[in-house]
Design goal:
Elements (H helix, E strand, L loop, with lengths): L8 H9 L2 H25 L1 H20 L1 H14 L3 E5 L2 H14 L4 E4 L3 H6 L1 H7 L3 E4 L2 H8 L16 H12 L7 H18 L2 E4 L3 E3 L4 E6 L3 H7 L3 E7 L3 E2 L2 H15 L7 E5 L13 E7 L3 H6 L14 H5 L3 H4 L10 H12 L16 H5 L6 H14 L2 H4 L3 H15 L2 H15 L3 E2 L2 E2 L8 H6 L2 E2 L6 H9 L10
Parallel strand pairs: 1-10, 2-3, 2-4, 4-7, 5-8, 7-10
Antiparallel strand pairs: 5-6, 6-9, 11-12, 12-13
Helix pairs in contact: 3-12, 16-18
């Protein structure tokens, strides 16, 4: 399984906020993706878009509610088409299944199309440990593989890197002359990877969707690498989370309208590949073997929780990342695992455990932009609040070392806010303490305990001279001094 460093979210996000280059890259990418998404939606009118979203949500809700039925149908039809289906309970079992397939076929070289599940499993390192060369062929994934990094975005894995950084990486790792011309860098990657496609014994791909009625694996890409990975090697292994299944080709049509527009603002992607079993006798190309590995790895926990089941509707478009004010400040690596952003703050605790990722549900302003952008109408803020509640009410290991202090402060705050007399006394005391340090009616930099951390990054208004109750009593109620009585 991929290394989990979600416990480091707070220091990692603090470091990311100070990285001006990262902020610039995030701002540029987020604005670009969201801008094109809005333009694509405007082309079909908001009414039509909302109708598509509702259709997609109904399909996902129905499928996840009957997941066992559709997984059995999928297995039956993949097998009928000549493929083999493997169900993996966790990352260890999934990695062992793929490793066994590689050993059985004497695999030496693997080419991979983009797969977030393979990142989740840490599959590359597992295969490399048994002597297999693994090459990412999506350009963004190839860049971060050369840099020995993890993806920072669901759709654009290398968006955190500048053109110059990529050019230097190519020069250092590939031994080519330095050039930051984008077309030249793409040409270099194409030349290097072309030979890998020809040499590969096995191709590994993810899956955007799994169609139960036909037993088909569907891949949507903007590069030709997906088709080469699935058709050129003699063995093709598809990796997918169990939530990727949908009932029919008719349902697929709905998602083919939504996913490209939500992810990149395109009407349709450059390539839509549908793989149904291995090569048949009449086919010109295709793999001799097709294996589909369906991965649980914690998804059953999300499925069993009615409050979090909705997270399995996600189609990994990345739209919620592009509008999230937190992600736009800290980027994907701060989240400490494979799935960043608002949806990652729900999925990650579900897959790796709340105790491992207790800070992620708090990495949100609850502004609701993610819910509005989601093409499947996932109510992300509601699930974040549910997780926050579970963390606050759960074991101390969930809440962290400051749990007792937080609980004490919360109880004290509730006591004061429920008593008008105590609230008035607290306001007067607070004003007397803070007024000498105020400049221009706000509290600036200060070392005052409990206030200094807040004041480092924002202004803290001092309490008003008069409370609303006093203003109401004396001026607005019509019964204070100077007002005639009825």
């Amino acid at each position: 399984m991929a290394e989990i460093v979600t416990r480091q979210f707070v220091p990692a996000s603090q470091a990311a906020v100070k990285d001006s280059q990262l902020r610039q890259a995030l701002r540029r990418a987020g604005t670009g993706f969201d801008g094109t998404r809005r333009e694509a939606i405007a082309e079909v009118t908001p009414e039509v878009w909302e109708e598509w979203r509702q259709q997609a949500r109904r399909i996902k809700e129905h499928t996840i509610g009957h997941l066992d039925y559709y997984l059995e149908m999928l297995e039956r039809n993949v097998t009928a088409a000549g493929g083999r289906v493997h169900f993996a309970v966790d990352a260890e079992q999934a990695n062992e299944i793929v490793s066994q397939i590689a050993r059985a076929n004497d695999v030496r070289t693997v080419t991979k199309s983009k797969s977030m599940v393979s990142e989740e499993l840490g599959l590359n390192h597992v295969l490399e440990a048994q002597g297999v060369e693994v090459f990412e062929t999506d350009l963004g994934e190839y860049i971060i593989q050369l840099a020995d990094e993890t993806p920072s975005h669901l759709v654009a894995p290398a968006l955190h890197k500048t053109r110059g950084q990529v050019a230097q990486l190519f020069a250092d790792q590939l031994g080519v002359p330095y050039s930051d011309d984008i077309e030249e860098m793409a040409r270099i990657a194409r030349v290097v990877l072309r030979q890998k496609f020809l040499d590969a014994d096995m191709g590994i791909s993810g899956a955007n969707f799994l169609v139960a009625e036909t037993g088909s694996l569907v891949i949507i890409t903007n590069e030709g690498n997906g088709r080469l990975c699935t058709s050129a090697p003699r063995v093709h292994v598809g990796l997918a989370g169990m939530e990727k299944v949908i009932p029919s080709l008719q349902d697929l049509a709905v998602f083919l309208r939504l996913l490209p527009r939500s992810a990149t603002g395109q009407r349709i992607t450059s390539y839509m590949s549908m793989v149904t079993g291995p090569r048949r006798s009449e086919d010109e190309d295709g793999p001799e073997e097709f294996h589909l590995v369906i991965v649980d790895n914690g998804r059953s926990r999300l499925l069993a929780d009615p409050a979090l089941r909705e997270s399995l509707y996600c189609i990994r478009c990345g739209a919620c990342l592009n509008v999230c004010p937190v992600y736009q400040r800290v980027g994907g690596h701060a989240y400490g695992w494979v799935y960043p952003g608002p949806i990652g703050s729900i999925v990650t605790p579900g897959l790796v455990g709340v105790g491992q990722a207790k800070d992620l549900p708090n990495a949100s302003t609850l502004c609701g932009a993610c819910r509005d952008a989601c093409p499947v109408q996932i109510n992300i803020p509601r699930m974040l609040l549910h997780l926050r509640h579970n963390i606050a009410e759960g074991p101390e290991s969930y809440r962290g070392t400051g749990a007792d202090t937080d609980s004490l402060l919360a109880r004290g705050f509730a006591t004061v806010m429920s008593s008008p007399r105590l609230l008035d006394v607290g306001r007067k005391i607070g004003r007397r303490l803070l007024s000498p340090m105020a400049k221009g009616g706000v509290l600036g930099q200060t070392r005052l305990p409990l206030v200094s951390r807040w004041a480092r990054s924002r202004d803290l208004p001092i309490p008003a001279p008069r409370s609303f109750s006093e203003i109401w009593r004396d001026e607005l109620s019509g019964k204070g001094p100077g007002h005639p009585q009825d």
